[in-house]
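Forgive a beginner's question, but would it be possible to get any protein sequence you like and the tokens describing how it folds?
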Amino acid sequence: MNLTRDSSPPLEARAFLSSGDRTIHLRSAKPSVCMQLEPVGATFTLEDLDPASLRLGRADSDQEPIQPVPSKRPALSDTDRNGIAEIGVCFAKEAVRGLFADVRGPANVAVLLSGSLTEGRRIEAGLNVRVVPGPGGRPPLAARIAPNPMNPVSTLTFVTDRAGPVRVTIFDVHGRTVTTLLDSKLVEPGEHQIRLGAGARPGSELASGIYFYRVETRDDRVTGRFAVLK
């Protein structure tokens, strides 16, 4: 196998996510992110590609590209049915999370899937993906209520990291909505407090019992349990 590299411009290739969309969900339970790669035009054939050379990197960063999950040479396919054969390549989810560790909220990111032919010529495929952060990215939505149990007033505190819609709802133990404390299309980032209970705000006085609160934003939601004692 001749791995000699030359200084010629990289050969153009096309890449897309195997999932069929353009979004990478970093918090999903799937262990890997898989992509399809196909040549553009007749400049090279996939039989001449060295799969072990493939790397996924950021087009907007000097960060070290990540390596694919080791595997046998995958069979050729045509998942998008455009008449051009593709080869699949998968990257471990933890490695992908590291690649996008600085992405704090859903964002469009330019990436580059690159590799080389067995004779040394480089190939490159650029694409834009939407990255939805998970562990190591945007901090999770946080909320708490105190004092708990409530008697007669408590404060629900929650923290958002960016501006956007927020809805705060109270449910009973049967899952029925008791009251909506907040339903706003725009809440600024930061710490927010909502007082509830006797005389705190209209609709927030509750009978004795067990309740649940739910805080929802565009990207996340958090639920908690509290009691009311009278």
